[in-house]
Write a sequence for this structure.
C-alpha cells in the first residue's frame, strides 16, 4: 500500500459518498431544533414538538440529504437563521448569515432579497439608515472573506447566478 492510500480512499468511493450524504444531517437537526425553539417561544410546547416533527419527517429532510446526497439543508440553516435575525432586528447578523447562505448555494441568495426588502421597509418606516448599512457591510465582508480562498467574491457569485439562470 502506498503512503497516499488513505487520502485516496477518503477522496473517492463509498466513504466520500457517505460523507456527502451525512453532511446534511446535522443541519437538518439544527433546523428542526430552531423551528422548535421558535414555535415554543411563540406558540407553546405542543407547537414546538409539531414543528420539529414536521421538518424531521418531511420527505425533503429524509430524501434530499441522507438518501440523494444533496446538501441543501446546509444552506437552508443560515437562510433560516438570517430570517430570524432580521425579524429580531439583528441586522448585521442577518446580513452575515444571508451572505453565507448565498455562498453555500447561489439559489439561497433569495434570503438576501428578502432581508433587503425588510431593511428597506425599516428605512421607510423609521427613517434609520443604520440597518441598511449593517446588512450591506456585513454581507459584503462575509462574501469577500468566504470567497478569498477560492478567488471569488460577490461579483463572481453574481456572474455564477446569471450563468445558471
Amino acid at each position: 500500500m502506498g503512503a497516499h492510500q488513505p487520502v485516496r480512499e477518503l477522496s473517492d468511493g463509498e466513504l466520500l459518498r457517505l460523507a456527502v450524504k451525512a453532511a446534511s444531517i446535522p443541519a437538518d437537526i439544527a433546523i428542526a431544533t430552531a423551528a422548535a425553539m421558535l414555535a415554543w417561544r411563540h406558540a407553546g410546547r405542543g407547537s414546538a414538538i409539531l414543528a420539529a416533527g414536521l421538518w424531521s419527517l418531511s420527505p425533503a429532510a429524509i430524501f434530499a440529504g441522507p438518501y440523494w446526497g444533496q446538501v441543501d439543508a446546509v444552506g437552508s440553516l443560515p437562510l433560516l437563521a438570517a430570517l430570524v435575525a432580521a425579524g429580531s432586528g439583528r441586522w448585521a447578523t442577518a446580513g452575515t448569515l444571508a451572505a453565507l447562505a448565498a455562498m453555500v448555494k447561489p439559489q439561497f441568495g433569495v434570503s438576501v432579497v428578502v432581508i433587503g426588502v425588510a431593511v428597506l421597509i425599516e428605512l421607510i418606516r423609521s427613517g434609520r439608515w443604520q440597518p441598511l448599512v449593517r446588512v450591506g457591510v456585513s454581507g459584503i465582508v462575509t462574501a469577500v472573506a468566504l470567497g478569498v480562498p477560492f478567488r471569488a467574491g460577490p461579483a463572481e457569485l453574481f456572474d455564477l447566478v446569471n450563468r445558471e439562470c
Summary: The radius of gyration is 19 Å.
